[in-house]
Design a protein that fits this description.
CATH superfamily: Collagenase (Catalytic Domain)
CATH architecture: 3-Layer(aba) Sandwich
Order of helices and strands: HHHHEHEEEHEEEEHHHHH
Low-confidence stretches: 1-11, 17-34
Mean pLDDT: 87
Distance between the termini: 65 Å
Strand order of the largest sheet: 2-1-5-8-7
Largest sheet: 5 strands, mixed
Number of strands: 8
Structural class: alpha/beta
Strand content: 5-15%
Helix content: 40-55%
Number of helices: 11
Shape: globular
Radius of gyration: 27 Å
Bound molecules: zinc ion
CATH class: Alpha Beta
Length: 320
């Protein structure tokens, strides 16, 4: 008896559930025809941009979310960061047909190893941004007016003021077809008396920038010192060139475009840009992500950095 009652109740319940299910099915079926398909893509974008929105998600697992530590850049300068979509809408400075060469200009004296690293910087730049890159002959620094020099108040070494390069020297040397004119020096730099030092500084308007190798260590001391010197030089050059194409500091991931307050923080950043910044570069330079990762992987293989080369290979597979 009990069982039968149970059966009847359950039969009624099943019937009710079946009606609800059929109604829902019918409603969902109708909605499917009425509503446009759901998408996270911004409206009115072309096919290439839409593809980049999808591809950037594929390389997320390769990057760590930003974690601000004591003394880091974001602790001193709490910036907001910028998504790929915001970049597209920001009317960024892009290379044009008349201005698409990146020039690297060494100024002063350099050791043989430093010269080799400057050549590598030019090669990496090409693979990184897909633009023609010219490494200019080394030029002497000449006489620098006293008002652009100082003795560092703590470390006591001679420092040169970035303003001298940005406003005086480099604009005179800037080639007409330069998308960016990047100068390297061996002197330590300072932007004004309130700062202890800067790694480098750029001005977007003038398309020029200056960076120092002074704090990157001695590449001839050991294999590890060479690795540090080389990766630091490449990072600063790629980072500042990113600024020249209107990419601000990245705050979402540990990224080559994240700000650095000190050398340890710069060392923590990867040698590549995060998904958002990758999409910006691919979009701005019309650079296929698969091709970019292939070129970067090849570069590191040639340098004997097998692990890094493999990582770029994995990224290439992910965006296919
Ligand atoms: Zn920066
Ligand atoms: Zn980024």
């Amino acid at each position: 008896m009990k069982c039968w009652k149970k059966y009847r109740l359950s039969f009624k319940l099943n019937l009710r559930l079946l009606i609800i299910f059929l109604t829902l099915f019918f409603l969902i079926g109708c909605q499917k025809n009425i509503e446009p398909p759901k998408t996270d893509l911004p409206p009115n974008i072309d096919e290439r941009t839409a593809k980049l929105f999808k591809l950037k998600e594929k390389i997320v697992p390769f990057f760590k979310p930003m974690r601000v530590q004591k003394g880091d850049w974001l602790e001193s300068f709490p910036e907001e960061g910028q998504t790929f979509e915001q970049y597209i809408n920001s009317n960024p400075t892009l290379p044009t047909a008349e201005r698409q060469i990146i020039y690297i200009q060494p100024l002063g004296d350099f050791t043989q190893t430093q010269k080799k690293v400057l050549q590598l910087t030019a090669d990496y730049m090409k693979a990184f941004y897909n633009l023609p890159v010219e490494l200019n002959e080394i030029k002497p620094l000449g006489n620098i007016p006293k008002r652009f020099q100082r003795k560092n108040p703590y470390e006591k070494q001679l420092q040169l003021k970035t303003g001298y390069f940005l406003n005086d020297l480099l604009p005179k040397m800037l080639p007409k077809d330069a998308a960016a004119f990047i100068c390297f020096t061996n002197y330590d730099l300072y932007p004004d008396d309130n700062w202890n030092y800067v790694f480098g500084q750029a001005t977007l308007q003038n398309r020029v920038g200056v960076w120092s190798l002074w704090r990157f260590g001695n590449p001839d001391k050991s294999a590890e010192d060479y690795r540090l010197f080389m990766t630091r030089t490449l990072k600063v050059a790629m980072h500042e060139t990113g600024h020249m194409f209107s990419m601000p500091h990245c705050t979402k991931y540990e990224c080559l475009m994240s700000g650095s307050n000190h050398l340890l923080e710069a060392d923590r950043h990867p040698l590549d840009v995060c998904p958002e910044c990758m999409a910006k570069i691919a979009w701005a330079m019309k650079y296929e992500p698969t091709m970019r990762y292939q070129n970067l992987s090849k570069f590191w293989k040639e340098q004997g950095f097998e692990e890094l080369s493999k990582e770029f290979e994995e990224k290439e597979k992910a965006v296919q």
